[in-house]
Amino acid sequence: MKILVVGSGGREHAITWRLAQDETKHELFCAPGNAGTAAIATNIAVGAEDVPGVVAWAVANKPDLVVVGPEAPLCKGLVDELAKIGVKAFGPPLAGARMEGSKAFAKEIMKAAGVPTGRAETFTDAAKAKAALPAYGLPVVIKADGLAAGKGVIIAETQADAEAAIDDMLVGNKFGAAGAEVLLEEFLVGEECSILALVDGEHAVLLPSSQDHKRIFDGDKGPNTGGMGAYSPAPVVTADRLPFIRDTIILPVVRELKKRGIVYKGVLYAGLMINNVPGGKPAASGSDVNVVEFNARFGDPETEAVLPRIGGDFAKILLACAEGTLKDADVVIKDDCAATVIISSGGYPGSYEKGKEITGLEAANAVSGAMVFHCGTKAADGKVLTAGGRVLSVTGMGATLREAVDTAYKAVDKIAFDQAFHRKDIAHRAFERG
Ligand code: AMP
Ligand code: GLY
Hints:
Elements: E1 2-7, H1 10-20, E2 27-32, E3 42-43, H2 51-61, E4 65-68, H3 71-75, H4 78-84, E5 89-90, H5 94-101, H6 103-113, E6 120-123, H7 126-132, E7 140-144, E8 153-156, H8 159-170, E9 182-186, E10 191-200, E11 204-206, E12 211-212, E13 215-217, E14 221-224, E15 229-232, H9 242-259, E16 265-274, E17 289-295, H10 302-306, E18 310-311, H11 314-323, E19 332-333, E20 337-345, H12 361-366, E21 370-374, E22 377-380, E23 383-386, E24 390-398, H13 401-412, E25 420-422, H14 428-432
Parallel strand pairs: 1-2, 1-4, 2-3, 4-5
Antiparallel strand pairs: 6-9, 7-8, 7-9, 10-11, 10-16, 12-15, 13-14, 15-20, 16-17, 18-19, 20-24, 20-25, 21-24, 22-23
Helix pairs in contact: 5-6, 6-9
The structure holds adenosine monophosphate and glycine.
């Protein structure tokens, strides 16, 4: 198959790498890709958010499938534009991508579909939002409706902080149009996990569970990042929960969207809160599994931990989602565990320097069971340079989670660049369970 992967991060490198593992060999392209994808695919000079550019390339090159990595092109309607020229895509249309692009829309769908989630209301008026605060208690969650680069969620511990967050968004315009509408949401207690579901408009297949590490420092301290590591499976998601998640969360959403004329294809990513805290405050929904958010794409770095666990012909699976034939697809999950460690530039998620030479990539890839995915890199004069906050995503596989983590860190230790940083406690929640 001729396949174009849209995006340039660790997620897109992992998708391209996984496609390259298929027994049937494909012709792989990335728009724009990175120094890692360049080794296994042809990078084309078209930006991931350049919808007309991707469409023009598709008209000229007639790919069998376009796999869209990030949310931005989905929310710009890339899949709709590709459909107009008869090109199949893995990813939802713009109307479906609103599950990620608008938190108010996602809540409306969940409410209509009876999906357990935190109680929430939307406001455009700051005084009305503040008047509603007491009903939520503390802490309370304040969210900007739209895409705000992961910064639009404030967990306010005091009334004053909650009021300040409301003012920042509705009066101060801190997030621009994304914050013109805000949600007040019930604070949910428990442990978070990610479920990536493959969807073909009607059917869904749940991929193995995973857990992200959003804070920059060990022990989940410091500011939020795009994700500093992940592992799969996440033991907080016990096997008995999976049918509930599929039948009470994923499928009702897919059906509700279909009822509204939205054929959702691609990944429906559910960020879930599992209330496993003994005596923890029960959620208003009455369920101990609640949706925190939906995303319309593969998670990053979850993808780097989940995709190496998928067997079979990956291109066929993705095409089945695009064609609506997922019911007949063979999705094989390997028993092996996976752990992913992100190596970032010193200073990230604040300001950081770029252009540092990376050494040890070959040695890291040579570690048995390890794979190095590039997140923010650039090739120049035969060298690989840092080009982003998150630079590399190093995955280790193993028969146990401990082995997977050890393999990942063994590979991480081979890699060096000036001011490189990584967390040393990936999968700590799984190990704390004993
Ligand atoms: P979101 O962008 O909605 O995923 O929110 C970002 C992060 O904020 C989540 O990963 C959670 O850690 C936290 N969060 C969001 N909503 C809630 C909630 N209702 N209760 C507790 N934590 C939340
Ligand atoms: N790992 C979180 C995300 O992809 O949104």
